[in-house]
Design brief:
about 350 residues; alpha/beta; Rossmann fold; Alpha-Beta Plaits; six-stranded mixed beta sheet; four-stranded antiparallel beta sheet; 16 strands; about 25% strand; binds adenosine-5'-triphosphate; P-loop_NTPase; transport; ABC transporter ATP-binding protein; ATP binding
């Protein structure tokens, strides 16, 4: 079997191209991106207590970060989409299938990595992945071949022949990932896939997620508390708080400051530069680490900053357009009033309908 250069076999690439074609409709000169998930009015009560309150959301193709404080309803939302919990209300579509009516077909098209461990004691790693392949309809030899391919993609060596009970946390996360991917689904729903991973393993996991989305056209819903992971790979962000959707927007939109701002890191004293920028009418904020945010100045206007630095003998180490901090957005949203931010992904989808 030929490979596509990143450990995934070519049939995987072909399948995802085909799937992608189903979700991107070309009209003359206009590309309308269809939604991967579009649901409305989902309410889920656990013994009368709401975990999801009239949730409506649209997930565009690409990688979407699903964020929220503990208990905000992320896992319940995922389980609801997969029909693993029954909801009191809600309707919509997932990958073009009616939700919740066609939930069995939907499950066939989704690779789910649950938050908790899920394996059968006594099996070795590759047997466990092959079992998942067989459960999703592949015949014995093909299931085993595919399981090995997925284990290669997840950087398993000889450990694939060890019993899973002996696996480290990182290996168990990789195993769940291989299990979720083995049937080549167009949509992956990953619940905390990097929890418990060391920095190298975490980077490798994020790189795999990026590869699946960018090279193989898969869509990913990534539920996580780790905001740098969202910054690293996500295109869009959904924030749930108290069972309601507070934000659905692209990461690019959320990151863009309300006015153009430069982030400048200097070596040593920067007071001269601060004075020059302030005299020129710009608001300058100094961070705890000593770096500066010069607000109101366009990224194309860096010449002026270099000039001020030269005039005040300030050494600039780095200068780049400033981004809003995802941590701050998250904290503001989590503690703030009902603030539904606009959703450029949803708007572009709605505009095309
Ligand atoms: N099986 C259950 N029975 C009763 N209540 C539940 C059950 N599962 C979840 N809940 C409650 O529903 C709410 C949402 O929980 P959920 O696990 O969906 O949140 P979460 O955002 O995934 O949390 P975390 O980030 O901690 O995993 C919480 O108040 C939780 O206690």
């Amino acid at each position: 079997m030929m490979e596509s250069g990143d450990g995934l076999p070519n049939h995987c690439a072909i399948a995802t191209v085909t799937i992608h074609a189903c979700f991107v409709i070309h009209y003359v000169g206009v590309v309308i991106i269809d939604a991967v998930v579009q649901v409305e009015g989902i309410t889920k009560l656990y013994r009368g207590v709401p975990a999801l309150r009239d949730v409506s959301l649209t997930v565009a193709p690409g990688i979407t970060g699903l964020l929220g404080p503990n208990g905000s309803g992320k896992s319940t939302m995922i389980k609801a989409l997969l029909g693993l919990v029954k909801t009191q209300s809600g309707a919509g579509q997932v990958l073009g299938h009616t939700w919740p009516g066609d939930v069995r077909q939907i499950r066939d098209l989704v690779g789910y990595l649950p938050e908790d461990d899920c394996y059968i004691t006594g099996l070795v790693g590759v047997e466990s992945v092959a079992l998942m392949a067989r459960l999703s309809g592949l015949a014995g030899t093909e299931a085993l071949r595919r399981a090995h391919e997925m284990m290669d993609f997840c950087d398993f060596g000889e450990e694939r022949y060890r019993e899973i009970q002996s696996y480290s946390t990182g290996m168990r996360q990789k195993l769940k990932f291989a299990q979720a991917l083995v049937h080549d689904p167009p949509l992956m729903i990953l619940d905390e896939p990097t929890t418990g991973l060391d920095p190298d393993q975490r980077a490798a996991m994020l790189s795999r997620i990026g590869t699946l989305a960018r090279r193989h056209g898969k869509s990913v819903i990534l539920s996580t508390h780790i905001l740098p992971d969202v910054r690293a790979v996500c295109d869009n962000v959904i924030i749930l708080v108290g069972g309601t959707v507070r934000v659905v927007d692209s990461l690019e939109n959320l990151s863009r400051p309300s006015s153009p701002t430069l982030h400048v890191t200097t070596l040593g004293d920067s007071s001269g530069l601060v004075a020059k920028a302030t005299d020129a009418g710009f608001l300058v904020l100094q961070s705890d680490d000593g770096s500066l945010r010069i607000e109101g100045i366009e990224a194309t206007d860096t010449e002026r900053v270099w000039q001020w630095a030269a005039e005040t003998q300030t050494s600039i180490r780095r200068m780049q357009p400033a981004l809003n901090s995802l941590d701050k957005i998250f904290m503001d949203v989590a503690k703030g009033p009902q603030s539904l931010l606009t959703n450029d992904a949803t708007e572009s989808l709605n505009a095309g309908q």
